[in-house]
Amino acid sequence: MTAPKLLVIQPDESDPIGPLGDWLTEAGADLDIRLLPDQSLPADLDGYVGVVCLGGGMGATDDAAHPWLADVRKLLSKAASARIPTLAICLGGQLLAVALGGSVVTGDQGPEVGPGLVSKKDAAWIDPLFADLPLMQDVLQFHNDAITRLPAGAELLASSPRYAYQAFRFDRCAYGVQFHIETTPEVVLDWARQSPEMAELTRPEVLTPENLARVHADITETWRPFAHRFVRLVSGDLAPAAERQRTLPMA
C-alpha cells in the first residue's frame, strides 16, 4: 500500500514540524515539507491526500513583507474546496481562516504565551478528530494575532477565556487551530529568546526547561493519537465529519 502523501507548508524556519511530524510518519504518512520562501509551493495538490500548514512569526495578511503568503492562502482554499483534509496550526490556522472569509487582527486581549488549556465546544464531541480529546486539552500558546471571525458556516471546536476561536472546522475536513501542538521545549525557549517582550508576559517559572518538559509530555499524550486519527482521515480509514443538515424554518 502506498503511504498517504501530505504536503507540509512551513512558513517560518523557527517553527518546524517537530514531534507532530514523527506522529504523522509513525502512523504511515509520507511528508513533503516545503520551507518557505526558499522552497516553492506546488502549483496544485495533485498527488497529495492531505495538507498541514505550520506557524510563523509573520501576520496572516502581511503580504507586503511576505508576498508568498497569498499563495499559501490560495492553496489552503483549494484544499478546502476539494475537501482535502487539512490541519492548519497557529499562523496556519489564521491563514486558513482568512482564505475562507474569516478575519484575523492583533488580539485585543494581548498575546497568549506559554502552556494553556482549551475546552471542547459542543460540535467537537461528534467531530472525527476532536471527539476523543479530553474536555480540557493541554496546548502551547505563542501568538499576538487572533481569529476574530470564523469563515461562514465553520464549526467552532475549542475555545478559551481570552480568545474564543481556538479551533474550528470548515466543511467536513479543513481544520484550523490557534495553538501549537508541534513544539518542543527547545523551540519554545528559542521563541522566548527571540521575543523577550512576549516571554515577559508570563511567570518566569512557566518557561523553564523543566516545566516545558512536563507540559510537552502531556501534549504528546493528548495530541499524538489526534495526529494518528488525521492520518486515518487522509487515508480514508476514518470518515470525515457529516454534512451539516440544512433545515427550513417552521411555517
UniProtKB/TrEMBL annotation:
Pfam families: GATase. Residues 51-186 form the Glutamine amidotransferase domain. It comes from the Bacteria. Keywords: Glutamine amidotransferase. InterPro entries: ChyE-like, Class_I_gatase-like, GATASE. PANTHER family: GLUTAMINE AMIDOTRANSFERASE YLR126C-RELATED. This is Type 1 glutamine amidotransferase.
